Amino acid sequence: MHHYLMSGFIFALGLIFGSFANVLIVRLPKKKSVIKPGSQCPLCHHKLSWRENIPVFSFFLLKGKCRSCKKKINLRYPMVEILTSVLFLAVYQKNGFEALLFIRDLPFVVLLVAITFIDLEHRIIPDSLSLGGLVLGLVTSWFVEDLGTLNALYGAGLGFLVFYGLAWIYEKMTGKMGLGGGDIKLLAMLGSFLGPLGVVQILFISSVTGSLVGICLGIIQKEKNIMKTSIPYGPFLVIGALFYYLLGYRIWFPFMTPI
Ligand SMILES: [Zn+2]
Question: Which of 16, 68, 84, 190 sits 20 to 30 Å CA-CA off 158?
Fold first, then answer.
């Protein structure tokens, strides 16, 4: 198929899966079924017709307001849909058209997007996403030539151990929990997709970006003790994972062979 046509298909697919990510983001923290009932306005529970339920387009068609209760629709909906599409395209550009795209790489992106927005809003990472993702990463690693199941296991184990160790040290030093159990499971999942070298780089990138954002927020909020500024760490792990996954090891370790 023509490359542009294929890109258009992947982009449209991204919008549909972005829409599904929105369902996960809204319903998983409330422990509601992600299948039934169909889409509805979260405020007035007005059931959406298919015309009100087209990713991104409906948002503009409805001028950002629910047709029934006229309340504003959260801007997160179209943002998540567009973000998912853009990431789908990036993954497609990197990997080309292959079967693994559909059973591994694109579902990985959906998981990352859903985890990021749930953690930002609720400060939790549902086990169904992190542990479900861990299983998906391990099972599909069998088919990834430059990773392999052994590396995926090492990655998951390293992710779990490193973070578990950090959480333990942090707790001993400060007497309080800083790193959540959700972060530990998330890093294990990321390790199962990206291997041990991925875990090392995710930790590096996430700690740098996390600290920078934490310090900036601390200054904005005029927090006296900058270390006390509390932000969820999951989104930074995801940023690190995407950075490594899409741009690769070359930036950091130019002389090393892949994973
Ligand atoms: Zn409504």
Answer: 84
Domain boundaries, given as residue ranges, for the chain: 1-97, 124-259
Q: CA quadruple 144, 84, 157, 257: dihedral positive or negative?
A: positive
According to DSSP, residue 50 is labeled G
CB 144 within 8 A of CB 100: yes
pLDDT at 251: 60
pLDDT(238) > 90: yes
Q: How many residues does the chain have?
A: 259
88-97, 167-176, 233-242, range with the lowest pLDDT: 167-176
Separation of CA 239 and ligand 1 centre (Å): 33
Pick from 187, 108, 198, 109: nearest CA to 151: 198
Per-residue pLDDT, 146? 80
- Tell me how far the alpha carbon of residue 51 lies from the centroid of ligand 1, in angstroms: 15
47 beta partners: 40
Per-position DSSP letters for 84-142, written without gaps between them: HHHHHHHHHHHH-S-HHIIIIIHHHHHHHHHHHHHHHHHS---HHHHHHHHHHHHHHHT
Rg over alpha carbons for the chain, rounded to the nearest Å, is: 19
Q: Is the pTM of this model over 0.85?
A: yes
Identify the H or E element spanning 21: helix 3-27
Name the pLDDT band for 8 (thresholds 50, 70, 90): very high
Please tell me the distance from the alpha carbon of residue 84 to that of residue 95, in angstroms, as a whole number. Answer: 16
Burial track 47-57 (b if 16+ CB lie within 10 A, e otherwise): ebeeebebbbe
Q: How far does the centroid of ligand 1 lie from the alpha carbon of residue 14, in Å?
A: 25
